[in-house]
């Protein structure tokens, strides 16, 4: 018997994350490293515990191994209670056969039994791949005040980017009268953040109806939310003020990490009143060599830095050899940048090796054709041979052999 929880959170963490390319070829997007010591999933999990939500389901599907191991029993986030806490919820064998999650709504539908055992009044549905801090309890309070069936968190976005989001049109009291999923011609700049509060009895009703509709994509934005709106349900927008980033692309992931190095950033990871918790490796303190130069960078535990690091994020266990240069880059856990190598405007994934005198990426001002510039990405466990050159915008998923010494001259 499980104790009643007023609010249950469900984190959608099963997407493939194909826009992150080689970074998610073997890894679920919410498990991608972020900010020197975190993974993306740390943010919604920490928001839940800081908001007082004790029952959290994490719906996994694509490449779940690392994510499942990382979440474990939820202890780092204080989500390991005997009768609540965090629960990983993959697709499972049902009486009528096994079903992958067909869409965001179907994923919640398949786990209605998990939600029902807590007999909640409200369900908060979250994405597992956004970087932000948010007190969900305030959003739930707003939902109750409005006596809403559904409340959608919104953020104002530039009009040029609005077509990437679900766009809401609202009345002066913030009630929603129109919802367009990724419209070609947006009518407003109020974008859905993919954060929803539902009254559970209402959500259950629409999930069951959506599942019966064989033509449905079983998606919240495409199906469930429009169905609720067409039925005249009370739906409201909850305006969010603060840092929020969808890190679903290489550029946005790189930019969000670089934002942490901006002294004026609104994302404060040192705030004692709203900590972002994570599962950290037990490693010795960082070591900085006598000749090393580190400027405006984040350097995690276990790093050994002998070269030059500028405006970069180094995760746990990274090694930067003497004479190596790392600028405007993200170097993920366990990666090595060997002697004389130059890494600029790049993401080097976990346990990758950049060989001696190799060059990865380039500065924008070094590229004549600006459309050819972009962040270079090295996949996990990839070895870039000595003297090799990785151009801007490249996505490297195979080892690159060492360049012959006479060809390097």
Automatic annotation (TrEMBL):
Name the site position(s) for Could play a key role in the communication between the regulatory and the substrate sites: 61, 100
Please give the InterPro entries that the UniProt record associates with this protein.
ADP-Glc_PPase, ADP_Glu_pyroP_CS, GlgC_bac, GlmU/GlgC-like_hexapep, NTP_transferase_dom, Nucleotide-diphossugar_trans, Trimer_LpxA-like_sf
Residues binding alpha-D-glucose 1-phosphate: 101, 166, 181-182, 192
List the CDD domains hit by this protein, alphabetically: ADP_Glucose_PP, LbH_G1P_AT_C
- Keyword field: ATP-binding, Carbohydrate metabolism, Glycogen biosynthesis, Glycogen metabolism, Nucleotide-binding, Nucleotidyltransferase, Transferase
Question: In which pathway does this enzyme or protein participate?
Answer: Glycan biosynthesis; glycogen biosynthesis
Give the GO biological process terms: glycogen biosynthetic process
Top EC category: transferase
Q: Which Gene3D superfamilies does the UniProt entry name for this protein?
A: Hexapeptide repeat proteins, Spore Coat Polysaccharide Biosynthesis Protein SpsA, Chain A
In the record, the note on similarity to other proteins reads: Belongs to the bacterial/plant glucose-1-phosphate adenylyltransferase family.
> Its biological function?
Involved in the biosynthesis of ADP-glucose, a building block required for the elongation reactions to produce glycogen. Catalyzes the reaction between ATP and alpha-D-glucose 1-phosphate (G1P) to produce pyrophosphate and ADP-Glc.
This protein is called Glucose-1-phosphate adenylyltransferase
């Amino acid at each position: 018997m499980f104790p009643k929880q007023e609010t249950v959170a469900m984190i959608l963490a099963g997407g493939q994350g194909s826009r992150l390319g080689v970074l998610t070829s073997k890894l679920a997007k919410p498990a991608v490293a972020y900010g020197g010591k975190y993974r993306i999933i740390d943010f919604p999990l920490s928001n839940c515990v800081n908001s007082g939500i004790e029952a959290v389901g994490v719906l996994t599907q694509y490449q779940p191994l690392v994510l499942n191991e990382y979440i474990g029993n939820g202890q780092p986030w204080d989500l390991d209670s005997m009768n609540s806490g965090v629960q990983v919820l993959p697709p499972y064998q049902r009486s009528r056969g096994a079903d992958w999650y067909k869409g965001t709504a179907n994923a919640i539908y398949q786990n209605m039994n998990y939600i029902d055992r807590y007999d909640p009044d409200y369900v908060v549905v979250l994405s597992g791949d956004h970087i932000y801090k948010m007190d969900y309890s305030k959003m739930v309070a707003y939902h109750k005040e409005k006596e809403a069936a559904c409340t959608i968190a919104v953020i104002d976005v530039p009009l040029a980017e609005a077509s990437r989001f679900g766009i809401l049109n609202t009345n002066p009291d913030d009630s929603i009268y129109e919802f367009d999923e990724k419209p070609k011609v947006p009518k407003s700049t109020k974008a859905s953040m993919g954060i929803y509060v539902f009254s559970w009895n209402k959500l259950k009703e629409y999930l069951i109806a959506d599942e019966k509709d064989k033509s449905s994509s079983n998606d919240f934005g495409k199906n469930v939310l429009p169905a609720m709106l067409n039925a005249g349900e009370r739906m409201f927008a909850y305006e969010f003020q603060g840092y929020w980033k969808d890190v679903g692309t290489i550029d946005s992931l790189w930019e969000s990490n670089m934002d942490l190095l901006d002294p004026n950033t609104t994302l404060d990871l040192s705030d004692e009143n709203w900590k972002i918790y994570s599962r950290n490796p037990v490693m010795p303190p960082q070591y900085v060599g006598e000749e090393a130069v580190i400027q405006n960078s984040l350097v995690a535990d276990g790093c050994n830095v002998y070269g030059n690091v500028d405006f970069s994020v180094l995760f746990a266990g990274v090694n930067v050899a003497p004479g190596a240069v790392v600028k405007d880059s993200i170097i993920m856990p366990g990666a090595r940048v060997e002697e004389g190598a130059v890494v600029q405007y790049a993401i080097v994934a976990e346990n990758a090796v950049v060989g001696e005198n190799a060059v990865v990426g380039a500065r924008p001002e070094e590229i004549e054709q600006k459309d050819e510039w972009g962040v270079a990405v090295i996949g996990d466990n990839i070895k870039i041979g000595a003297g090799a050159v990785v151009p801007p915008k490249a996505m490297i998923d195979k080892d690159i052999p060492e360049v012959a010494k006479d060809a390097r001259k």
